[in-house]
Amino acid sequence: MRRAVFTYLALGVAAVLILAPYLMSVQTSLKTPGQFAQRPPLAPPRPPTGANYAELLVGGHSLIPPLVITVQVVLVVVIGQLTSSVLAAYAFARLDFPGRDAIFRVYLATLMVPAVAVLVPRFVLLGAAGLADTFWGIVLPSMFGSPYAIFLLRQFFRALPRELLDAARLDGAGHLRVLRHVVLPLSRPILATLLIITVVTHWNDFLWPLVVTSGVRWQVLTVAVAALQSQYNGDWTLVMAATTLATLPLLVLFVIFQKHLVRSITVTGMR
After folding, report:
1. How many CA atoms lie within 13 A of 32 on its CB side?
2. Pick from 88, 91, 207, 209: which is nearest to 149 by CA?
């Protein structure tokens, strides 16, 4: 009983420490600038106001265009990256071809290269191709898989029973049909986990969209919020409302895929 009480007490303290910044952000976003300046930061808003959200949704500083662009970027990147990663991981896991393991090791070694190191060469290449400050300039570098995603899927595919794949081949199924009807249905938990990781990574991506775009035409949500913070540095209630709106879709996504995420952790741990 003492151990259980101590465990739940420690988890409760950790939960408070993790959730406190988000709760404070939401609380600040419901205040007026006058309330924020005159009352302590931890004081609740009295009365709460939705003026900051109205300003960001239908006012002169709307975040709707950056939100739409961010959704489009994330959607294209997720579809491209999951498709490319699944095909590459299946090839590295189940196909035999010369130099397979060597190629995989070299590709995996790119994980040790910092993203900042390839930022300028990537920008120069896309600028020479005329893709700077375009939608495709934002999404193309991330569409064709990632070392982490391919490594994660390859390890999962290698753990699947070979007898299932052999049985499908005996029935006349080719590699694409085996991948579609056997491998992918068994890989839903790990695909859901990879989906969440990919969405969160590119939803919060800031540096590359900031470098490759200029102006507000292709401004994503993170860049728009950063610009708002710089422009309205004194109005923290508006900045906190923008931060809350930018975080809300990720919380909804996690709630939807929570069971798949927990299941993937359980299955991976058991294996």
Report:
1. 7
2. 88
229 Cβ contact partners less than 8 Å away, ≥ 6 residues apart: 239, 242
- Please tell me the predicted confidence (pLDDT) of residue 261: 66
What is the residue type of 98?
P
What is the number of residues in the chain? 271
Range(s) within the chain of domains with CATH label 1.10.3720.10: 52-270
DSSP 100-114: HHHHHHHHHHGGGS-
Question: How do residues 162-185 score in pLDDT, each as one tens digit?
Answer: 888 878 877 777 888 888 888 888
Report DSSP letters for 13-51, one per residue: HHHHHHHHHHHHHHHHHTS-HHHHHHS-TTSPPSS---H
Q: What share of the chain is helix, strand, coil (3-state, %, to 5)?
A: 75, 0, 25
Q: Write the class of the CATH domain 52-270.
A: mainly alpha
Residue-wise pLDDT tens digits, 218-237 = 889 989 888 877 655 667 88
DSSP character at residue 260: H
In angstroms, what CA-CA distances link 146 with 19, 77, 247?
30, 11, 24
- Phi then psi dihedrals of residue 39, to 5 deg: -115, 160
Angle formed at CA 220 by CA 115 and CA 70, multiple of 5 degrees = 95
Q: Are 187 and 157 contacting, i.e. CB atoms less than 8 angstroms apart?
A: yes
Amino acid residing at 79: I
| pLDDT tens digits for range 35-75 | 888 877 778 888 888 888 888 888 777 888 899 999 999 99
For the entire predicted model, the pTM comes to 0.83
Distance CA 205, CA 207 (A): 6
Cα distances (angstroms) measured from residue 6 to each of 10, 16, 103: 6, 15, 49
